[in-house]
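Quick illustration, no need to memorize.
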Amino acid sequence: MSDSITKIIVQGTFGLLLFASVVTWVLVLVKARQRWATKAEDYRFLQAAGAPVKLATLRTLKEHNGPAWRLTQAGLSALSEAGSHGDAGETPQEAVERALQIQIAKERRASEAGLAVLASIGSTSPFVGLFGTVFGIIHALRAIGSAGSASLEVVAKPIGEALVATGFGIAVAVPAVLAYNYFVRRLKVQVSDLEQFGSGLIGAVNRGVRQAELRVERSPSFEGRREASV
């Protein structure tokens, strides 16, 4: 392999690592902004929803956004459809629970966008740097052989330059790995919060269904039908 090809490979390695570093920091900024925005939106919505969760309050909330609000809309939509169509094979509670599970999965996939790229950069960058170092050392040894001298002054400089690629690869990998671990942790917390809020929403649905059943039982028409059946 000629020296020119070796130089191209080494330079290409540095270019690839530089590109990976730019991608890493762009993803970090985008994911950090996304996380900040969703956290702020969920906070505003949960403050407006109050505790404990009530269906009447949730139905009045408009002009909100964020995962918790979208989860609420999915649950209320499923509850409305279950009440209007009356699927005999599925209760309103089951319909709402299924809709919430689907929406939580959607929110998880949306939050996971870009994490696979961070994981790939973090795991492969050191090896890319090592790849450049190997070819850099090959080029350095050829230069040393051409010089016809193996003194420390002749050997140290080209070998040291070749090792820069490995250091660059590690420098690219460390932020990617740290960012990946942080965002994965935040994703788990977000999903846990959504599941907890979903449990409160299902509880509100159960209370609403029971109250509706009690109103039906106490209505005069229901009392008349029950006496007639007796």
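Residues 17-119+165-225 form one domain.
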